[in-house]
Amino acid sequence: MSAVADLQAPAAGLLPAALAEKLTDEQCQALAEAPRGQRLAMLAAALARPEIEVLPALAAAAGLEVASNLEADAEARGLLPARLVHEYQIIPLQLARASTTPSLPVPDLERPLHLAAAWLPDADMAAWIRTFTARPLRWHLAVPERVHQLIIENFGVGAGSLEDGEEDYIAPAAQAAAEEVVDEEAAVVRFVTDVISQAVADQATDIHFEPQEAQLRIRYRVDGLLVPVPVPENLLRFQDAIISRLKIMARMNISEKRLPQDGRINFRAGGVTLDIRVSTVPTIYAESISLRLLNQKKEAFSMDRLGMSLEEQAAIGEVLDTPHGIILVTGPTGSGKSTSLNAFLRKINSTDLRIITIEDPIEYEVPGVNQMQVRPEIGLTFAEALRHVLRQDPDVIMVGEIRDRDTAEIAIRASLTGHLVFSTLHTNDAPGAITRLVDMGIEPFLVASAIELVIAQRLVRRLCPECSRPAPISRVKLVETLAILGCDPKEGVGVTELAAPVGCDRCRGTGYRGRIGIFEIFRLNEEMHQLVLKRESTRTLAECARRHGMRTLGQSGWEKVRRGHTTFDEVLRVITVVDK
User: Fold this and answer.
1) Are 207 and 131 in contact (CB under 8 A)?
2) Hey, which bits of 381-496 come out as E strands?
3) What is the pLDDT of residues 270-300, one digit of tens each?
4) Which residue blocks in 432-498 are alpha helix, DSSP H?
5) Would you say the C-alpha torsion 192, 197, 198, 202 has a positive or negative sign?
6) Is the sign of the CA dihedral 333, 203, 263, 213 positive or negative?
7) In which element (H, E) is residue 542 found?
C-alpha cells in the first residue's frame, strides 16, 4: 500500500506482522484497546526504543510515509465533524506544493484528502470518513502529540463534546450509551473533563476561564507562560453551564455570584489524580474561574533534575547536614520554591529523623514525612500550626511560606533551639531575604544567628533537545547581554554561537520543552553577620556576597545558556536585574 494510495488493506489499523511478532499477545491486546493517540508511546515502550525511531519503522512496515512539519488544511477542516476527528485522532493535512508549474484545475470530488493520523488507519475509519466526503483518502503517519495539537488548534479543546447532534456520526467508543441528540448537561460535563485532561497533557499548572465580551476565553499556564486555548465556536452558548459545572465540582454555592469563592476538586481521569484548587471572582460579564492543578502522583524532582550544578548541590548539601538553622528559598510565585524544598526533604529523609511539614497546599507526598495542610478558615494558620508542631518532637520542620512576623519569629526561635527549618519567602534575590525579615520586625541579631543559607531561584524554559540548533551571535550582542546579566564580558571570549530554538512537532513548534532552574546561593560569613547587625541594605549585602564568591542569578543563567540548556531571552525574561 503506497503512502498516497486509498485505504484498501483489510488488516489496516492492525500492527504489521514485522512488529507484532516482537510483542507478546498481551501487549498486542493492550495496544488494540488503548486510545489511538497513546498507542505509539505504548509500542515504543514495549520495544524499548524511542518514539522517534519507532514512528518511521511503523510507517515503513505499513507502507505509509511519515508527515513532518504538519500544517492543517483549513479548506478541508469543515468536511469532518469534530467528534470524528477527536475520536480517531486525524487531521486534514495541507501538503506543500511540489511545483509552481500551472496545472489544470482538479474537481473537488477528485482532489485527494490527505489525512495525518496518530496511528495506523483502519477500515472503520475510512468508512466513517466516506460518509462525509467522497474525496479519495491519502494517509500519512505523524507524531501523535502534533496531530492532537493541530486538532485542538483547528477545532478547539473539547469541540467533540459540545458539537451539536445533527450529524449521524456517533463515536464508536460511546455508541452503546450515545443518543442522536447531545444532552447539554452531559456535553458540558464532557467538555470540562476534556479541558482539564488537555491541561494535564500540556503540563499546565493553571487553567483560567475568563468571560469576555462575546466570548469565554480559556487559557493555560504552561512553562510559566499563559497560552490561549482554541475553543469551539459555539462555546459562549454554554458559558453559564460551564461556570456552574465547575462550581458544583468545587462544592461552591452556585447561586452566589456576587462574592469571590474558594473550593477544591478531586479530579480523576485516565489514571491521573489531581487536587485542583478553585477560585472564583465576579467580573463585569460573569464569574472568572481559576484552577490550580496539583498532580498528587507527580514525579518528585531531585536536585540534579532541578538543574543544579555539582558545585551548587555540594554547597546546599553541606548545609543540609547541619542539625539546626534556617534554609530559605526565595523567588516569585511559580518559580519552583516548593519543588526545591521537596527535593531537599527527600535528600535528608531517613528513618532516624522526624520530619514535619506545614504546607498550603501539599504539592508532593513524601513517604515517611508527616505533612500538615493549613486551614486559615478554622484558625490553623502557619504560625498556629508551627506552635503545635514544636511540641511534636521534630528534627526537621518545613514551613511552606513565611507570610508574617509571627511565623518568622517562631521559625527563627525553632532554629535556635536545635531544629533545622526550611521555608520560602518572596524576594527578588537571596540577600533581599535578610532585609525582608528585618523589615518584618525580627531583630537583626536573631536573623544573623538563625539564617544558614538563602537560595534565590527562577525557572526558565528548557530548549527542546530534538530541534535546538547552534546559531551565530555577534560579539557586540554577547558583551552587551553579559553586562546586563552582571557577568564579566571576558567570560564570552571565544563564544561565536549559542543554541537557539527552532520548533518541531515534539515541542509543538515552540522550540522549548520543560523548564530548568537558575540559582543564587547566599551563605552568611562573619563579615556579612556584621553587616546584618548594622542593618545594611540589600545592595551592600549583595556586593559583599559577590566579593566572597556568590554567583548571581544572571551568572547562573549565563552558565545554562553556555551549556545549551536555554537562551539569553529566557534568562532576561525571568530576572529582575539590579544595578551593579
Assistant:
1) no
2) 396-399, 420-425, 451-463, 469-472
3) 677 888 999 999 999 999 999 999 865 566 6
4) 432-439, 444-450, 475-484
5) positive
6) positive
7) helix 538-547
pTM score of the predicted model: 0.76
Contacts of residue 129, defined as CB under 8 A and 6 or more positions apart, other chains included, come to: 80, 84, 113, 115, 137
DSSP string spanning 298-359?
PPPPPHHHHT--HHHHHHHHHHHTSSSEEEEEE-STTSSHHHHHHHHHHHH--TT--EEEEE
Grid cell digits, residue 416: 535556635
Choose among 433, 367, 374, 427: nearest CA to 400: 374
Residue 434 near residue 488 (C-beta atoms within 8 A): no
What sign for the dihedral angle of Cα 520, 523, 528, 534? positive
Q: In terms of Cα–Cα distance, which of 276, 539, 288 is closest to 432?
A: 539
For the chain, the distance separating the N- and C-terminal CA atoms, rounded to the nearest angstrom, is 66
CB–CB of 288/281 below 8 Å? yes
pLDDT confidence of 535, banded at 50, 70, 90? very high
- Cα(163)–Cα(375) distance, integer angstroms: 41
Which DSSP state fits 431? T
Q: CB within 8 A of 454, min separation 6: which ones?
A: 327, 328, 329, 330, 430, 431, 433, 434, 521, 522, 523
Pairwise CA distance, residues 498 & 470, whole Å: 5
Q: How far apart are CA 574 and CA 332, in angstroms?
A: 10
- Three cell numbers written together for 21: 511478532
Instruction: For residue 188, give the C-alpha cell.
Output: 458540558
- 8 A C-beta contact, residue 264 and residue 278: yes
Q: What angle do CA 13, 17, 18 make, to 5 degrees?
A: 120
Cα–Cα distance measured from residue 159 to residue 235, given in angstroms and rounded to the nearest whole number: 9
The yes-or-no verdict on residue 310 having pLDDT over 70 is yes
Question: CB pairs under 8 A, 24+ apart, for 171-175?
Answer: 171/83, 171/84, 171/86, 171/87, 172/87, 172/124, 173/87
Is-contact 274 205, C-beta < 8 A? no
CA–CA separation, 208 and 203 (whole Å): 14
Handedness of CA 219, 221, 226, 227 (dihedral sign): negative
Residues 498/135, Cβ–Cβ less than 8 Å: no
Q: Nearest-CA neighbor of 342 among 323, 325, 332, 327?
A: 327
Give the strands of the sheet with 137-141, arranged side by side. 90-92, 113-117, 137-141
- Rounded CA separation 240/185 (Å): 11
pLDDT class for 548, splitting at 50, 70, 90?
very high
The helix/strand/coil state of 556 is: helix
HEC sequence for 250-308: CCCCCCCCCCCEEEEEEEEECCEEEEEEEEEEECCCCEEEEEEEEECCCCCCCHHHHCC
- Exposed e or buried b per residue across 291-324, where buried means at least 16 C-beta atoms within 10 angstroms of its C-beta: bbbbbeebeebebeebbbbeebbebbeebbeeeb
Cβ-in-10-Å burial (0-12, 13-18, 19+) of 463 comes to buried
pLDDT value of residue 448: 93
Whether 485 and 577 have beta carbons less than 8 Å apart is answered as yes
